[in-house]
Amino acid sequence: MLKKVSNYQVLWDRNILEKYNCSGPRYTSYPTALEFHEDFTLTDYSIACAKYPQYPLSIYIHIPFCKKLCYYCGCNKIITRQSSKAVPYLNILETEIRERSLLLKKRKVTQLHFGGGTPTFLSSQQISWLMTILRENFKFEKTTEISIELDPREIELHLLNHLHNEGFNRLSIGVQDFNKEVQKLINREQNNTFIIKLVKYAKKLGFRSINLDLIYGLPKQTRKSFSNTLSQVLNIKPDRLSIFNYAHIPELFASQCKIKNNDLPLIDEKISILQDTIFTLTKEHYQFIGMDHFAQSNDELAIAQRNGTLHRSFQGYTTQSNNCEIIGFGMSAISMIGNTYMQNQKELDKYYIQVKHVNHALWRGIVLNEDDLLRGEIIKQLICNLTLNKLLIESKFKITFHKYLKKELELLKPFINDGLVEIDYEKIQVTERGRLLIRNICMCFDKYLQNKTRKKQFSRVI
After folding, report:
1. Cβ atoms within 10 A of the Cβ of 353, count?
2. Are 311 and 325 in contact (CB under 8 A)?
3. Bridge-partner residues for 84, per DSSP?
């Protein structure tokens, strides 16, 4: 059954969605983190830092601690109610920040994000202390985007005053679902009224952007129940919404074993939830950015997509320019510097020991070759802007597109035949019918996915 609404931005065909509903990367990077290796050295990192000294930075700070276990979560986290655990972590984090910043020469910072885990596991005083360390080692301006992820179960309203005074201007609030039965089954019971107060108070204080995180596909969710959640969300009108597809992979994430398979919505119900979500939000003037993301039509993320200047990184869709490099601090944090990706030690003890002994936490990474850069640019253009100018790719990488990517163009043929992609001499265009399958389309250009076992390590598209 085909369905289209004028401001829908998606043409639905359930048979096509089910046909292509396989596993694949989300492409927050290309190559993905599966290709990182431990042969990556500190010398590789040093060379990368010196390559583009004029580029601004986006800083990511990973705070791994959570007071409660959410059963659905696949993040790298440590569950503890002992607030004292943060003290040694922050001391090691300071060492890492000060040592790495020496190679980055106090570069200008255009974006800072605290993620986790639960960043608000830290006290107000600890957040201030960490901000002081960062400002001592990097150059912040009044226009710098400074954001933090909030768990509404563990904070008081007055924390927002403190964050705002410290320069934070963006918030991302984890909600997942307003339905009480769903909350109980994922071990995330929360006060819905408080969340509404939290958003309203943040707006009153003048936070520039407020994002809510939701998840579809959770146990006992239905079209009706999630529609009720969306109604509550629309009453408070956040600037952005991240609505993630729950990936049930208990063999990779032990906590998901606590979620019963029989409680999960069937694929037909899950597709219906997604369809209703996109229809409801676009009708209310949210732009469907892609995959999980929605933004109000006047939001800079939506404007960037319409202007063809949207980008994607380990932090998802972003308005930061292609020249903005990412430096990650803390356990498991990932950086994108020069033509390299690198990741810190993923286990807390190893992170502590390595920073104490050698003043850095580098665990693994990859130096991108010319082919990686070419394919990464193709995937980024398609996943962000839904179109690719082949002539610009030829000019930038000195190739003949149809010859260099002959095999990849063959892989695209089923998508062309099914009306998901249109291609001519100048460009490749993803159609409204193909938007929800953008990951599949990008997979055609992923050289590393020729190893089919790789696909099993990613979530399904729907």
Report:
1. 14
2. no
3. none
CB 9 within 8 A of CB 279: no
pLDDT attached to residue 67: 95
Say which DSSP state 68 is in: S
Give residue 263's identity as a one-letter amino acid code.
D
Residue with tokens 């580029």: 55
Kind plus residue range of the DSSP H or E element containing 455: none
d(CA 419, CA 413): 10
Taking only the tens place, the pLDDT of each residue in 128-167 is 999 999 999 999 988 999 999 999 998 999 999 999 999 9
Q: What pLDDT is attached to residue 57? A: 96
pLDDT at 121 over 70: yes
- Return the residue matching tokens 């307003």: 178
* Cβ–Cβ under 8 Å, residues 40 and 366: yes
Closest CA to 31 of 384, 453, 434, 336: 336
Coil/strand/helix, residue 58: strand
Give the tokens for residue 288. Answer: 């469907």
pTM above 0.70?
yes
Query: Tell me: the pLDDT tens digits for 169-200?
Result: 999 999 999 999 999 999 999 999 999 999 99
In the block, residue with structure tokens 């048979």: 15
Helix or strand run (H / E) with residue 129: helix 124-137
Map tokens 């909600």 to a residue. 175
For 278-347, the DSSP string reads HHHHHHTTEEEEETTEEEETTSHHHHHHHHT--EEETTEEE-S-TT-EEEEESTT-EEEETTEEEEE-SS
C-alpha 76/C-alpha 74 separation (Å) is: 7
Report whether 335 contacts 15 (CB < 8 A).
no
- 334-360 residue pLDDT tens: 999 999 999 999 999 999 999 999 999
Cα 373 to Cα 173, 319, 389, 392, 458: the distances in Å are 34, 20, 16, 14, 22
